[in-house]
Amino acid sequence: MRRPNSYICSALVALLSLNSVDAFYLPGAAPHSYEQGEPVNLFVNALTPMLSGKNEPKLKSLINYDYYNPQFHFCRPQNGPQSQPESLGSILFGDRIFNSPYDIKMLQDNGTCKTLCVEPDIPPEDAKFINDRIREDYALNWLVDGLPAAESKIDLKTGDLFFDMGFNLGNDDDQEHPYLYNHYEIVLRYHQPSPGNYRIVGVLVWPTSRGDSHEDTATPNCEGDVRPQILSESYNTTIRYTYRVTWNESDTPWATRWDNYLHIFDPRIHWFSLINSLVIVLFLCVMVSMILLRNVSRDISRYNAIDLSEDVQEDWGWKLVHGEVFRMPRYPMLLAVMTGNGAQLCAMVGVTLVFALLGFLSPSNRGSLATVMMVCWTLFGGIGGYYSSRIYASLGGVDRRKNAFVTATVLPTLVFIVIFLLNFFLLVAGSSGAVPFSTMLLIVVLWFGISAPLSAVGSYVGSRQGGVSHPVRVNQIPRQIPPAPKYLRPWATMLLAGILPFGAAFVELYFVMSSLFASRAYYAFGFLALTAGVVSLTTGTVTILFTYFNLCAEEYRWHWRAFLTGGGSAIWVLAYGLFYWASRLSLDSLSSVALYLGYLFLLVLMDFLVTGTIGFLASYWAVRRLYSAIRVD
Ligand SMILES: *[C@@H]1O[C@H](CO)[C@@H](O)[C@H](O)[C@H]1NC(C)=O
Ligand SMILES: *[C@@H]1O[C@H](CO)[C@@H](O)[C@H](O)[C@H]1NC(C)=O
Ligand SMILES: *[C@@H]1O[C@H](CO)[C@@H](O)[C@H](O)[C@H]1NC(C)=O
Fold this sequence. Notes:
The chain has 633 residues and is α+β, with helices and mostly antiparallel strands. Helix content is 48%, strand content 13%. It contains 14 helices and 12 strands. The chain binds 2-acetamido-2-deoxy-beta-D-glucopyranose (3 copies). One 2-acetamido-2-deoxy-beta-D-glucopyranose (NAG) is lined by residues 107, 110-111, 246-248.
């Protein structure tokens, strides 16, 4: 028996983890009702490595392979494989969908054993290739009516039945001779909303290895003794692929057919993460309000009281540097450009999360997350330009044109170069994950044809508005800076301040990494949005706190320090990424390693820009508030 509060808990988990996937379906994802005998297409997607290992699941590769890679020798459709249309995000995330020769018709041939094809003469080199992929735990990814073929598994912790997407290419329990699975038991679950109308609500596949199946090629045989299919690496092997489709009625309605797939492993972990984050935020808020509000209001009343009584007394604390705080920092252009790009990324992340929360990014729209991110990034070019030019003007920069140009081009170029290099590694490894040339071209058009002009417009608007006004004037001669305590050195503040937002997010970060690299579905967007909110709040407050400490120590070069302090969590994300590599991945090939490090670099860069911008803007706001509250003669 489950306790009632555990029901409430699960209900809340469901709510927060976007179980409203059925709430909205974008066009193209409307239910398809089949008639009896109507063909049901089975599409094949790229092969992906799976997490494997009983005790400590590890990922052994990061490279996807086309299903019709000639070395696999899978059966091809008669007219050759035809590529299916896909969204931009779907292509970027490695989907390569083709048609297949499986002959499936709604509710026909129930339980009939069929031969798909006989692949004669698989040469030893290809056998070795396939065996290596089996050892790396590659999985086949099929799609039927938009649903991924899955293996039915039981969550050992909760005892719930769930569908694990993808199924193994083979079995490598016997290290010396891996078995290839060449027989597929396909169970298609259908729902009948009205008589004569059938909808597919579940696709399950049990693959098995049948080494004797090619001996009698006349009659397919799905029963009987099973001798595993071993691929010899010294002579040619013949493989016969067989399959059997079983139709099974289900009472799952079409609208909730994804629920079985979106199984949340151990929802308590998400709760733990959330409570952990909330505790950190609460702790911070109390600390910040104690330090800042008490000290600052005391400082302000004292400063102003001294002024009133015209008591000739030395100034102290942060008031001392009032003539310096708005002095132009070093490299104002770089700071402005990074803030502009960071603001653009913040807007992108925010809007993507809102879309996800509203249920628009349902898993039936493959790649919708990446598509929305790309489109948002492109359309928010104006935000980047606007923030960059206004910050630049506020800092006292004069070369506006150069600033607008650099804002619009540098980050996209950098990201593009990284993607280009990663693509090179993927091509060398013969992976299908390499982004096709036409998609690359589309990205160039999106970034440099749409985003860059929007950014220029934003820069123009921003520079027309000019910089923000500052409450105190800058002295002619810079003050001397006394030596600061060790914990206020930039590196130390980055590490100290970064650990709080990182600590609030690291559990969700684990799930995000698992879904990025180990192709686990991630749909806990409610948790993710809350975590993102907590992270931005934490970053803002902690950066303000350190800026205050710096100013009290008469260290007035706060601009860059605020950005770096805010972006400090990126160091922890980098460290966590390396830890994840050591603990969860065992990558052998150079290409996989390069791919992992490349993606990690992009993730860390994005985190640095986003949190750095939050920290800098929050500090800017706080410094202006602080110095407008005191009276300076
Ligand atoms: C092995 O297969 C290859 C093509 O897959 C073929 O060219 C070769 O003749 C075969 N060798 C033998 C011994 O059958
Ligand atoms: C198909 O066969 C299985 C058993 O072989 C049976 O349970 C199922 O009801 C059959 N489905 C239909 C639609 O006849
Ligand atoms: C069909 O569904 C029933 C329950 O819905 C299940 O017990 C049975 O094992 C399923 N048959 C197959 C072949 O999966």
